[in-house]
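INFO batch 0412 | record 1 of 1 | parsing
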Amino acid sequence: MDGLTSSQENQQLSADTILELLANRRRRYLLYALRGHEDPIELSTLAEQVAGWEHDVPPDEVAKNEYKSVYVSSVQCHVPKLADAGVVDHDEDNHTVVLGDNFDQLEPYLQVVVKDEPENSMLHAALEEESGEGLLGRVRENVARLKH
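INFO prediction complete | emitting tokens
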């Protein structure tokens, strides 16, 4: 895939970098939306999904100004920050994004912070529907193991 930007492929992410990347809810939502996809996704589609989760509505019901806010901040801030860390690969020519090599380093922490996402929301339901037991199911299992 030509035009990809990712400057830290296969480099170890520091704890500070991981925490900084996950500190922003919109970045976490972008990562949730990309999980499980091997093919690049158009940034406009990601922005619709993220805006839907932020406002707890289906993506096709997102107001234009809400979508635009997510899209612009994703293009100007969030995707470049994730790409600089090698967590996503961004094809600027095609306006597509796919998870990068360094996402594997971030995923265990993403599984921890997911418990702070709003329950009874469209995001929560989407995470429950993931293949297998879902992200939230794995988090519950890990928490149960830690308690024993």
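INFO post-check: Helices lie at 15-22, 25-34, 43-55, 64-84, 103-113, 122-128, 134-147.
INFO record closed
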